[in-house]
């Protein structure tokens, strides 16, 4: 099977610092892959490398010819002092057919908000409008960077259900960064755990039982807290020696 996007030995540097080393990664049609890892572990940078916004200093990224990517960035600031309806927002920068807009809004579950001011959307509605925006191009792959940030648990769960419906209907692959570990574990085909490199990767079961993952996230419901208490049993000195001898 041909991958939609494939990275080989991809090393990414930002501002003179290597933030991600030797990443081998591929995503196929229709897969849901989630990227987890502590703050600063390179998750957003990985996505930016895969979409071509950051060039690898080593290795390569190959995207399928003509690949359509729908990208929902981690943060998007919309000037709330400007009067701007959802519909007009989706028409920037290119005016689109009303049908295309209403189809994307319907798929994202916010068709009733078409005439609402952007400044009056709830956090969950705002994220859905961002999802609608990413769907306008009928993407082959939807890439979401912490799309449920700021949503409460039911809001986040509803958002993930929406994403699953989108995948079912459009057949697009989904690559997302998430901190909602339980949802991630339930909804992903594959999980990629990062910490400046790929710590471990596989089906949710395999990753959840990997020592590298447990070192990062713990084992029980307290796991999410362990994100910020990052203990590790192997070396993360990116600039120096390689850490190839630990299991990937
Ligand atoms: N423009 C930049 N110049 C230098 N270093 C940067 C730059 N942007 C990010 N970094 C560093 O790169 C590392 C990876 O950042 P990245 O945003 O990819 O992490 P993340 O895993 O997405 O984090 P979070 O969970 O906090 O969003 C961090 O140490 C960050 O400080």
UniProtKB/TrEMBL annotation:
Residues 5-220 form the ABC transporter domain. InterPro entries: AAA+_ATPase (IPR003593), ABC_transporter-like_ATP-bd (IPR003439), ABC_transporter-like_CS (IPR017871), Metal_Ion_Import_ABC (IPR050153), P-loop_NTPase (IPR027417). Pfam families: ABC_tran. It comes from the Bacteria. One of its GO terms (molecular function) is ATP binding. It is an enzyme of class 3 (hydrolase). GO terms for biological process: response to zinc ion; zinc ion transport. Its EC number is 3.6.3.-. Keywords: ATP-binding, Cell membrane, Hydrolase, Ion transport, Membrane, Nucleotide-binding, Translocase, Transport, Zinc, Zinc transport. This is Zinc import ATP-binding protein ZnuC. It comes from Ascidiaceihabitans donghaensis.
